[in-house]
UniProtKB/TrEMBL annotation:
<dbReference type="Pfam" id="PF21405">
    <property type="entry name" value="AMG1_II"/>
</dbReference>
<dbReference type="Pfam" id="PF00408">
    <property type="entry name" value="PGM_PMM_IV"/>
</dbReference>
<feature type="domain" description="Phosphoacetylglucosamine mutase AMG1">
    <location>
        <begin position="18"/>
        <end position="60"/>
    </location>
</feature>
<dbReference type="InterPro" id="IPR005843">
    <property type="entry name" value="A-D-PHexomutase_C"/>
</dbReference>
<dbReference type="GO" id="GO:0030097">
    <property type="term" value="P:hemopoiesis"/>
</dbReference>
<feature type="domain" description="Phosphoacetylglucosamine mutase AMG1">
    <location>
        <begin position="74"/>
        <end position="212"/>
    </location>
</feature>
<dbReference type="GO" id="GO:0005975">
    <property type="term" value="P:carbohydrate metabolic process"/>
</dbReference>
<dbReference type="InterPro" id="IPR036900">
    <property type="entry name" value="A-D-PHexomutase_C_sf"/>
</dbReference>
<protein>
    <submittedName>
        <fullName>Phosphoglucomutase 3</fullName>
    </submittedName>
</protein>
<dbReference type="InterPro" id="IPR049023">
    <property type="entry name" value="AMG1_II"/>
</dbReference>
<dbReference type="Pfam" id="PF21404">
    <property type="entry name" value="AMG1_III"/>
</dbReference>
<dbReference type="GO" id="GO:0006048">
    <property type="term" value="P:UDP-N-acetylglucosamine biosynthetic process"/>
</dbReference>
<dbReference type="GO" id="GO:0004610">
    <property type="term" value="F:phosphoacetylglucosamine mutase activity"/>
</dbReference>
<dbReference type="InterPro" id="IPR049022">
    <property type="entry name" value="AMG1_III"/>
</dbReference>
<feature type="domain" description="Alpha-D-phosphohexomutase C-terminal">
    <location>
        <begin position="230"/>
        <end position="302"/>
    </location>
</feature>
<dbReference type="InterPro" id="IPR016055">
    <property type="entry name" value="A-D-PHexomutase_a/b/a-I/II/III"/>
</dbReference>
Length: 319
């Protein structure tokens, strides 16, 4: 694709398949889970980098600051950047098109708070899995959805698309028409069928260029709350049943009350547990004001799961 890009878009390819193994110590998932750059990439300070996964439906961005500290920009921050951009354009176009962001319970609490309280965009939480996000996003004129892992896209309703294309062609007001043209380009560039890392990357690059925003400024929109993912082996994952988009445990009895009591001990904290879809494992997510508190909360919740949901093997050890 590179020959088709304008000269302003300078892209350097790494891990292009000429050496190393596919997905080995690299890729979007590796970078997100390990919070470090992939192998084979020589990062310069404040240089904007991104990683796709093996089938290129996920994307995460990242950079190293001048002190060498690694910064991850995940799906939540990608959704936020796109939402800021779209909200500005929709305001200029002046049509009553409703917009919403769809997340899962794994979205960082800071992103949800920023979208709802600062950007004033409605946020909806659904069960984990792209099909749930996609389905919910179809309910709006403009539906932005991204999983924290970087899989996502933007959906435009047929009515919204028709209205935007019409304004781009026939709008009397110059500012409105220009904004509609940019929205029309966005509709043409984003892949509305499925998460598409290449088209997502081009959308992000276009937004950063149009807004004159650096990767550091993007990263600074909000600060992620420290979070921790753990898993506990259980005899039978079916003992855990959840509700409220997997944020609340129905069975075994007493587990949700225990989680609620543990969460109350820490500031800005949240925790939930959900059974794995494939193995006898219960996944635990926790976030709080500091990494120390987050790790303590995650450990305490994992002990509660172990004792109340039939844990296997030795009890979970402190992090």
């Amino acid at each position: 694709m590179e020959p088709y890009f304008p000269k302003e878009v300078v892209i350097h390819l790494f891990n292009d398949g000429t050496k190393e193994k596919l997905n080995h110590l690299c890729g979007a998932d590796f970078v997100k889970v390990h919070q470090k750059p992939p192998r084979g990439l020589d990062m310069k300070p404040n240089e904007r980098c991104c990683s796709f996964d093996g089938d290129a439906d996920r994307i995460v961005y990242y950079y190293k600051d001048t002190t060498g500290h690694f910064h991850l920009i995940d799906g939540d921050k990608i959704a936020t950047l796109i939402s800021i951009f779209l909200k500005e354009l929709l305001a200029k176009v002046g049509e009553t098109l409703n917009m919403a962001v769809v997340q899962t319970a794994y979205a960082n609490g800071s992103s949800t708070r920023y979208l709802e309280e600062t950007l004033k965009v409605p946020v909806h939480c659904v069960k984990t899995g792209v099909k749930h996000l996609h389905h919910k996003a179809q309910e709006f004129d403009v539906g932005v959805y991204f999983e924290a892992n970087g899989h996502g896209t933007v959906l435009f309703s047929k009515a919204a698309e028709t209205k935007i294309r019409q304004l781009a062609k026939e709008g009397k007001d110059d500012e409105k028409r220009e904004a509609a043209k940019v929205l029309e380009n966005m509709i043409d560039l984003i892949n509305q069928t499925v998460g598409d890392a290449i088209s997502d990357m081009l959308v992000i690059e276009a937004i950063l260029a149009l807004k004159g925003v650096t990767v550091q400024q993007w990263d600074a929109i909000y600060t992620d709350l420290p979070n921790r993912l753990l898993k506990v082996q259980v005899a039978d994952r079916r003992v855990i049943v959840t509700t409220d988009a997997e944020r609340c445990v129905v069975t075994p009895p007493g587990l949700q009350e225990k989680i609620d009591a543990l969460v109350k001990k820490y500031k800005l904290s949240r925790a939930f547990v959900r059974p794995s879809g494939t193995e006898d494992v219960v996944r635990i997510y926790a976030e709080a004001d500091t990494q120390e508190n987050t790790d303590a909360l995650a450990h305490e919740v994992s002990l509660a799961v172990y004792h109340l949901a039939g844990g296997k093997g030795a009890p979970p050890q402190p992090i």
